[in-house]
Design a protein that fits this description.
This protein has 410 residues and is of the alpha+beta class. Helices cover 55% and strands 19% of the residues. The strands form four sheets. A four-stranded mixed beta sheet has the order 2-1-3-6, with no helix packed on it. The protein has a three-stranded antiparallel beta sheet with strand order 5-4-7. Strands 8-9-12 form a three-stranded antiparallel beta sheet. It is rod-shaped and about 170 Å long.
Length: 410
């Protein structure tokens, strides 16, 4: 990216450094010629003699320049001498253009500019709105840069990049139950740099105060030396999951017996929500010191790691499910038996009522038995059966139809 302002600044600094040096060499060359007894005349032999006297000094300057470039190349392991000379140029005279530059997005530099990564500025950073950068120079933290263009000073480089976007991590936590049996529970944690209530906008979708970014940037842990190099460093995101979530959940799970954790007790209350709430409470207290905040907490199924124990639990669960199925079947059978018993009782009651209604007719010698009299008694018995709550349910439909017909006839 061409910039007239940068080019003008570069040329002015170049001339400010070069012209005094050339003036000193010229003065030394003139003194040399004067010591030889030459007159200060601007003829060709005198000019050539002055230039001849300046050549050793110019060659010494060029040698110093190349030695400095080679020193930078060896010290910072720069790929080529050209890159080292370009870096030296920028340090001495400033930048004549926008490059070199790095694009910072999604918590990593999008590019492989070795100079800016390993040596530092002068250079530029193009920072997207999802990241913030903490810079350092000579082992001292200098400033925090957010969205926009950031100019790196000589030897100023990136200390760390902080992702401002919401994050979500599902992490299997290995713990032990109260009995000491190994178990695994997945923790689903959503978290983000604490914005302290700042409103987001199109220009700044992930606002965050600088002191929260600084907290997250400097809370890095260096883990034990026997770990691989890429996993030895634990940043703020790793501390939220490893240090806070894993440690807290292990402690909470160790307070519960195994049968309750995996639902093998008659107690109907599931401890998972209780565990989740306790974990969320502890995380909301501990995570703010890392410059972050918790968005949500969820737990997955709890699994037993030990193979023999897992087989025992599966057999126990199968027995439990079989017992529950048998109880359910027995309940249905008992219900059917009760229905049949009630139906039998209703039928017996109806037969008894009919017998009681017809018995006086059979034992009386004075009363003449007629069909109308028998129908009247049956009508009376059916009417009572329909009014009774027990016999009404099991009264045959034919009897109901007959009773309705008799009522219509009367």
């Amino acid at each position: 990216m061409f910039s007239p302002e940068k080019l003008t600044r570069f040329l002015s600094r170049f001339m400010l450094v070069l012209l005094p040096t050339l003036a000193v060499l010229l003065a030394l060359a003139l003194l040399t010629e004067k010591s030889r007894g030459e007159d200060f005349t601007l003829d060709a032999p005198f000019v050539l003699a002055v230039i001849r006297d300046m050549v050793p000094g110019i060659m010494a300057l060029m040698a110093a320049y190349l030695l400095a470039a080679r020193f930078l190349q060896a010290m910072y392991k720069i790929d080529s001498l050209t890159e080292a000379r370009s870096f030296l140029h920028r340090c001495l005279f400033g930048q004549s253009k926008f490059s070199p530059w790095l694009r910072i997005t999604e918590e990593k530099p999008d590019g492989k500019d070795q100079i800016l990564n390993q040596v530092g500025g002068p250079g530029h950073l193009v920072i997207y709105n999802d990241s913030a950068v903490l810079l350092e120079k000579g082992g001292q933290l200098t400033r925090i840069e957010k969205k926009g263009f950031a100019r790196l000073q000589p030897f100023e480089q990136i200390y760390t990049i902080v992702d401002l976007r919401p994050k979500r991590t599902v992490y299997p936590v290995k713990a032990m139950s109260k009995e000491g049996i190994p178990i695994t529970c997945e923790a689903d944690i959503a978290y983000q740099i604490d914005n302290e209530g700042l409103e987001s906008s199109d220009e700044e979708p992930y606002p965050a105060p600088e002191h929260r970014i600084f907290q997250a940037a400097v809370c890095t842990w260096i883990r034990e030396a026997n770990r691989p190099t890429e996993t030895r460093t634990m940043d703020w995101s790793g501390r939220v999951i490893i240090s806070e979530t894993e440690g807290s959940l292990r402690t909470i799970l160790s307070q519960y017996p195994l049968d309750r954790l995996i639902g093998l007790t008659l107690d109907s209350t599931n401890p998972r929500e209780e565990i989740r709430q306790e974990l969320e409470t502890q995380l909301r207290k501990g995570v703010p010191k890392l410059g972050a905040k918790i968005l949500s907490v969820a737990l997955g199924d709890i699994k037993v790691d030990h193979e023999v124990t897992q087989q025992w639990i599966e057999a126990w669960q199968a027995r439990w499910e079989r017992w529950a199925t048998e109880r359910q079947a027995l309940g249905k059978a008992s219900q059917v038996e009760q229905v049949e018993h009630a139906k039998t009782r209703a039928q017996v009651m109806m037969i008894t009522n009919i017998t009681d209604a017809l018995r006086p007719l059979m034992t009386s010698s004075d009363q003449k038995i007629t069909a109308k009299l028998v129908l009247t008694r049956l009508f009376m018995v059916l009417s009572r059966a329909q009014a009774d709550t027990l016999t009404r349910v099991y009264l045959p439909q034919e009897a109901v139809n007959t009773l309705k017909l008799l009522k219509d006839l009367t």
